[in-house]
Design goal:
CATH superfamily of the largest domain: Histidine kinase-like ATPase, C-terminal domain
Number of strands: 7
Number of helices: 6
CATH class of the largest domain: Alpha Beta
Number of domains: 2
Order of helices and strands: HHEHEEHEEHEEH
Structural class: alpha+beta
Radius of gyration: 20 Å
Largest sheet: 5 strands, mixed
CATH topology of the largest domain: Heat Shock Protein 90
Strand order of the largest sheet: 2-4-5-7-6
Shape: globular
């Protein structure tokens, strides 16, 4: 009960913080327009820093709100049909600048007939952006490989053999890697790896926690393999057709693709 109340409190607090913060962002944008109009260019860099910091804070608040909704059982799924290639292109548009900033080579591999899926596209995009952004953030002068495949797996359900298509997203990097003793707690909320190699990168410890919970909601899972100093590979696997009648997490756990 206490845990449920805690997540409800976080959800309500996040809602209350977003409204005034949105006003700050709006007024700051107005000030930037006025500064440009009246040739007050010396103050523009400071206003842009305010804008950047405010959006960073808004992103953190949004993450807390998402996580609290999931934990409180109030996160809704909005499934839709979409071409996987379109999703990939959208994700790459968001992540490529960060990869370029750290002088990384980002390569993408998937078959031209990868097809469509029926899932909550917004949540899938958020998972992939989180995973790819982490790879770009913790890799410098290296390589990030994004591979997407489609597999059909058979399993027995009520004495009937059925087949399901699964979409597998694999993100491999040559970054700093993760200590072996940190892997079990990697997807816990608000947990950061207390290691000298990762501390300078900062972060809230929410991105992976949200990604894993979104993966469960979509009927899938995220796994990770990593070697300290050599890099990490995160694998997201979700059904091409999101489970409708039963719990997504239960549906995935009963599947052999898990």
């Amino acid at each position: 009960m206490r845990c449920w109340v805690w997540w409800e409190f976080l959800a309500n607090m996040s809602h209350e913080l977003r409204t005034p913060l949105a006003a700050i962002i709006g007024y700051n944008e107005l000030m930037q327009d006025l500064a440009a109009e009246y040739d007050l260019t010396p103050i523009l860099p400071y206003l842009k820093k305010v804008d950047m910091t405010a959006h960073q804070l808004l992103a953190i608040i949004s993450d807390i709100l998402d996580l609290s909704k999931v934990e409180a059982g109030r996160m809704e799924l909005l499934p839709e049909r979409a071409h996987i290639s379109v999703i990939i292109n959208h994700v790459l548009t968001n992540v490529q600048p960060l990869a370029d900033k750290n002088n990384n080579i980002l390569s993408v591999n998937y078959p031209t007939d990868i097809g469509e899926l029926y899932t909550d596209v917004a949540k899938l995009k958020q998972i992939l952006i989180n995973l790819l952004s982490n790879a770009a953030k913790f890799t410098q002068n290296g390589r990030i490989t994004f591979t997407i495949t489609r597999e059909t797996k058979s399993f027995n359900n009520d004495n009937n053999q059925t087949q399901n298509d699964w979409i597998i997203f694999e993100i491999a990097d040559t970054g700093i890697g993760i200590p072996e003793n940190a892997l079990p707690k990697l997807f816990r909320p608000f947990v950061q790896i207390n290691d000298s190699t990762t501390r300078p990168y900062g972060g809230t410890g929410l991105g992976l926690a949200i990604s894993q919970r979104f993966a469960y909601l979509l009927g899938g899972n995220i796994t990770v393999q990593s070697t300290l100093g050599k890099g990490s590979t995160f694998t997201l696997i979700i059904p091409a057709q999101i489970p409708i009648e039963e719990s997504p997490a239960k549906s995935y756990e009963e599947n052999p693709a898990a």
